[in-house]
């Protein structure tokens, strides 16, 4: 029969030789291999004490950015929600009132902005889609939680502290 | 002190010794579970349990505590009496074997000579044989009483496996008996003390005995009665809480005892090289001898684990073929050759 790919290997169907039938040499060889592994470096990283370094392009938890004056950059355009393949982002837009110029940079802002971290696949498309440089992926990941609703991160979880007031 | 013509010191001494041996086997069994998990982890390039106490040393306690607090379930369609009897037999039988193993030579305390062997019965090996084959009743009764097809299959497997492997084991031992001329374990050790270890004279016999010991303890590669991935845990499928714990525990005690047995019969027991030319006091030598036996036993336990994490389980027909077509003829040949040599040497 013609092989479909050139990677196919014929199965060795020769009858076993006496040494192979004895099994003992093969078992001894296997035991040698496991014995070697007994002393090899372990692959485990003891997590809470030691942390594995992330790659420089690691995509972790999102943060919502502010500008130099501490105003929220997000304008609730919804492009991130559209780009999101996991449909993890929900938002509600609101209009900036007079006197709120020190809070929001654009005339329209996100009154509610939620990311469901259980849905999110940390692809980073939201970060790429944002025209206002408002959403970034940080270098941490979502800590564990006892409830599902604890994984829905609202604005207070996502917004970075104000650079001026520090809050 | 003799009262009512009973030597009370003798009784106290034996009770103490029995308790010590029991505690020893239980503690070793307990820490074998820890050792097993560590060895498994190391072989698989992991670290193993290391959170409960330093190096995870409190892990067995945590496991035991967990087992105690688990819900006790007795299936409705099971036979409750037999269901409880199963693990009890397994546990009792596992603990009984340690009685005839000589854990060391004699100690002399305040003029009394205390033998570090609970009972030096002159049929030690036969006793062990009898008791070990009772062990299968625990599995059989437990599996039968569970009223579950997997458990039943497991108990049938266990019964036929143990019968099949008891034969070559017995035959291998007969060769050893012909060589030593005694059934008493103490005497077997004493002979090895002044001579070479028996494994030098009986390498094949030892090898057969080793394989059969694996089968008798239901250890991988012969763990067909348990077989997680085909029988769902086999005979202890329906068991929960400490009854399950007893089954698992009995397996580890069995492993400890058979390791001690192999060390005693083939590797000199409490005898170690140059023990009589060190010039130490007899008590000291006895204690060192006990340490030697203990180390040998631990090495065997390690071997059991090492094999478990290396070799996959046999198929049932392979198991039977190995037992009946390979081990029994080999053991018979070994027996005949040994017999011939013993006869030749007598003339
Ligand atoms: S990282 Fe991807 S999945 Fe997560 S919120 Fe952004 S676009 Fe959606
Ligand atoms: S985070 Fe960026 S993309 Fe998303 S709504 Fe705000 S401004 Fe638009």
From TrEMBL, chain A:
Reactions mediated catalytically: a quinone + NADH + 5 H(+)(in) = a quinol + NAD(+) + 4 H(+)(out)
UniProt main location, coarse: membrane
Record-annotated membrane-spanning stretches: none
Enzyme class: translocase
Keyword NAD among UniProt keywords: yes
Keywords: 4Fe-4S, Cell membrane, Iron, Iron-sulfur, Membrane, Metal-binding, NAD, Oxidoreductase, Quinone, Repeat, Translocase, Ubiquinone
GO biological process, one term: aerobic respiration
Keyword Ribosomal protein part of the UniProt annotation: no
Residues where [4Fe-4S] cluster 1 binds: 74, 77, 80, 130
Any GO CC annotation of this UniProt entry: plasma membrane
Required cofactor names: [4Fe-4S] cluster
Membrane topology designation: Peripheral membrane protein
Binding site residues for [4Fe-4S] cluster 2: 84, 120, 123, 126
Protein localization: Cell membrane
Note on how the cofactor is bound: Binds 2 [4Fe-4S] clusters per subunit.
Domain of life the protein comes from: Bacteria
MF GO annotations: 4 iron, 4 sulfur cluster binding; iron ion binding; NADH dehydrogenase (quinone) (non-electrogenic) activity; quinone binding
EC number, as in UniProt: 7.1.1.-
Function statement: NDH-1 shuttles electrons from NADH, via FMN and iron-sulfur (Fe-S) centers, to quinones in the respiratory chain. The immediate electron acceptor for the enzyme in this species is believed to be ubiquinone. Couples the redox reaction to proton translocation (for every two electrons transferred, four hydrogen ions are translocated across the cytoplasmic membrane), and thus conserves the redox energy in a proton gradient.
Family per similarity comment: Belongs to the complex I 23 kDa subunit family.
Oligomeric form and interacting partners: NDH-1 is composed of 14 different subunits. Subunits NuoA, H, J, K, L, M, N constitute the membrane sector of the complex.
Identification of the protein by name: NADH-quinone oxidoreductase subunit I
Organism taxonomic ancestry: Bacteria, Pseudomonadati, Bacteroidota, Chitinophagia, Chitinophagales
